[in-house]
Design brief:
The chain has 345 residues and is an alpha+beta fold. It has eleven helices and seven strands. It has two domains: 178 residues, no CATH class; 143 residues, Reverse transcriptase/Diguanylate cyclase domain (Alpha-Beta Plaits). Strands 2-3-1-6-7 form a five-stranded mixed sheet, sandwiched between helices. A two-stranded antiparallel sheet has the order 4-5.
């Protein structure tokens, strides 16, 4: 975040906003310089150049307006890049004022590459160098009469400059991709439970807030019965295996869009989207029965384990905390009623 600017949170959003701001900056600078040169050209009697520069001013302002009203600005950038292609070619081949147009063409083409990106920029620059090199080496009447040494320097300088700017863009994209991947990796680690590899409490809350609720959902709180006794009797390694096994069972029997997370210790939280309390209770009971009927082995001894669950209805995103409290209350009711059961009300 720079001075309050919102660049978004995904690579596509950030790149789109970067190009939008670049369009705004191009419009501000381009309008200032082109308008100035337009007035100077008109005063000096170069009416055609003044008219062409004025036309480009109008196009730049129109592109800035489109960048403001459109969500995606890639097509605007591609169009403006093509416009800059012709403007730069006009400045180079026409010579501008006493052959100074070539100097301004460097800045214009650099902006062109920044707008369209390195992939399309390579195509634009290859065509630009090829067509303008041929034109400069010809005797066409509309081409400014540069000296032979000037033509060779313009072409060689252009090749070096555009190679550098394209390489810079490729490096920028590559480094940004590496940073983005690292950020996603750190985010995943921050939202994941290292033991069960499902969401942790923070990950559950983040995932829930990021997804529209749609129709009502069911929120389930699950707690492994007598977990302290399991650790004391069979060891913490076996207790960890129980937690991993329960996490795998929950993931296996829920939909991909549902939320499954370790809420803390031996507690798990599940959000079943588009599911009534009755349907959720039926599903959790089936998971509970399978979990109990397929006990884990510890030193060749089968150790049956059970869990208890409480379920609450969830109608709005704002009701998440209250639904957690209600499901947790019903979970403790299940414990008080003898454990290894599901309570819905």
């Amino acid at each position: 975040m720079i001075a309050g600017l919102n660049f978004g949170s995904t690579p596509d959003e950030i790149e789109n906003q970067r190009k939008r701001l670049l369009l705004y900056a191009s419009a501000a600078l381009g309008t200032t310089f082109l308008s100035t040169f337009c007035v100077v050209s008109f005063v000096q009697g170069r009416t055609l150049m003044a008219f062409i520069l004025l036309l480009f001013v109008g196009i730049v302002l129109a592109c800035a307006y489109l960048a403001k009203v459109l969500v995606q600005v890639q097509r605007v950038c591609l169009f403006l890049g093509l416009v800059l292609f012709f403007l730069s070619s006009y400045l180079l081949l026409g010579g501008g004022a006493d052959g100074t147009g070539a100097y301004w063409s460097y800045a214009v083409t650099m902006l062109m590459v920044l707008l369209v990106g390195p992939k399309i920029g390579m195509l634009y620059m290859a065509l630009y160098l090829l067509l303008n090199s041929l034109a400069l080496s010809s005797s066409l009447p509309f081409v400014y009469a540069y000296s032979d040494i000037s033509v060779s320097r313009i072409i060689s300088t252009s090749v070096i400059l555009y190679t550098l700017i394209l390489a810079s863009e490729w490096i920028r994209i590559g480094s940004y991709g590496a940073i983005s991947s690292a950020s996603e990796s750190y985010r995943a680690q921050a939202n994941s439970d290292p033991l069960t590899h499902i969401l942790n409490r923070h990950g559950v809350q983040s995932r829930f807030k990021a997804r529209p609720l749609g129709s009502s959902a069911a929120l389930v709180m699950i707690d492994v019965d007598h977990f302290k006794n399991i650790n004391d009797t069979h060891g913490h390694d076996f207790g960890d295996r129980v937690l991993v096994y329960l996490a795998e069972s929950l993931k296996k029997h829920t939909k991909g869009g549902d939320i499954v997370g370790r809420w803390g210790g031996e507690e798990f939280l599940v959000v079943l989207y588009g599911t009534s309390i009755d349907s959720a209770a039926e599903l959790i009971c089936r998971i509970k029965d399978n979990f109990h009927s397929e006990p884990l082995s510890n030193n060749a001894t089968r150790v049956p384990v059970t869990f208890s669950a409480g379920i609450a209805n969830l109608d709005r995103v704002e009701d998440f905390e209250s639904a957690v409290l209600q499901a947790d209350k019903r979970l403790y009711m299940a414990k008080e009623q003898g454990r290894n059961r599901v309570v819905t009300g």
